[in-house]
Amino acid sequence: MTTDDQYTGASNGPAAAPNTGWGTDPGTGPATPGAASLSYPCQACGATVEFAPGSGAMRCPYCGQEQAVTSVPRQVREHSWDELAALPAKPRGSVPAGVRAYVCPACGAHTETDDLSARCQFCATALVAEPDATERVTPEAVVPFGLDRNNAREALRKWTSSRWFAPSSLKKVSEAETFKGSYLPHWTYDAETVSDYWGQRGEYYYVTETYTAEEDGQTVTKTREVRHTRWYPAAGTVSRDFDDVLVAGTNHVATKQLDKLTPWPLEEARPFQPEYLAGFQTVRYDVEPEDGLVTAKERMAEVITGDCRSAIGGDEQRVHSVDTRYSGLTFKLMLLPVWFLTYLYAGKSWQVMVNARTAEVIGERPYSKGKIAAAVVAALVVIAVIVLLVVRK
Questions:
Q1: Model confidence over 310-328: pLDDT tens digits?
Q2: Number of other CB atoms surrounding residue 116 within 10 Å
Q3: What is the pLDDT of residues 49-107, one digit of tens each?
Q4: What does the DSSP assignment read for 300-317?
Q5: What are the angstrom distances between the C-alpha of 56 and each of 109, 182, 263, 336, 343?
Q6: CA-CA-CA-CA dihedral for 384, 386, 387, 393, to nearest 10
Q7: Alpha-helical runs (H) found in 108-182
């Protein structure tokens, strides 16, 4: 979505070249040659500077000169769902984000990509797309990279060291230089909800029962307390306000994997500025906000059902139906930072992701058959020793 205040004062670098070639609708047209991109030359040596994680500044990868990122004079804001409804719908079945060709400010080469930021395929210069009015929804906020490559490598080292049954050689993965930093698009949704529910409240009661049992060859009569549940109809209304329900805006990474990187420090989000993207890949969203809202409502429904159970009370609850009304629905597009590492082990690719703010690490890893076998043998030895001690007593 484009608004009057988005991207105002977004660049503190030199003026970007005029936008000469976004041309076609993203997702329907071919790659556009010579698409405009933003460049940030070093004030000391003229090379292209990149955002330095955790510093709030841009740094030259050659001479180390730093240039502060000047904050834009606006706040992160939520966008009314009515604003989205006023925009033209994205054609279904179209190519997911138009491929565009960036002109490298350093070597002049053309790099084709559908990312919002990338690196020149020839000289590795940071490339950042100029804000594009043809995008249906543009980023509202970004959580900048807080961990640099060394910090991410240290987080990975701790993670691999804590994998008990991983092969010993897995620890060498943390020495790899294949880390790739990427911003991933996410939708956030706010809503005020009022839900009418109907269900049943279960209350326990106990009945004394008599039964017979065999003891020392004799039949004896005993009693026991047996629990039963008495059900009563229950209905009512619950309300809850939701803030920043997070939904991944890309299908390039499995949602279940991304969810494991939560929680994100969304309170540290800053108004979007292209400077934060320099030096990193930034993936365009391919999950439309309408589809993201479906997922968000599913997540809200789980919380609302819990509220209904609490309202019903009793010892057990049955929730038969919930009718939810939504109001004050808002959304925004955010960019969240992730370090990626894909490594080969035993002829298979394994992927690891690092939350570039919290250092949370999740991913796949191989298991050492030898370590597992040794652990099993050790457990059997311990059990055998315990049994032997018991027998001797």
A1: 999 999 999 999 999 999 9
A2: 26
A3: 999 998 889 999 999 999 999 888 889 999 999 998 887 765 544 444 456 677 777 77
A4: HHHHHHHHHHHHH-SSEE
A5: 29, 17, 22, 16, 30
A6: 140
A7: 149-161
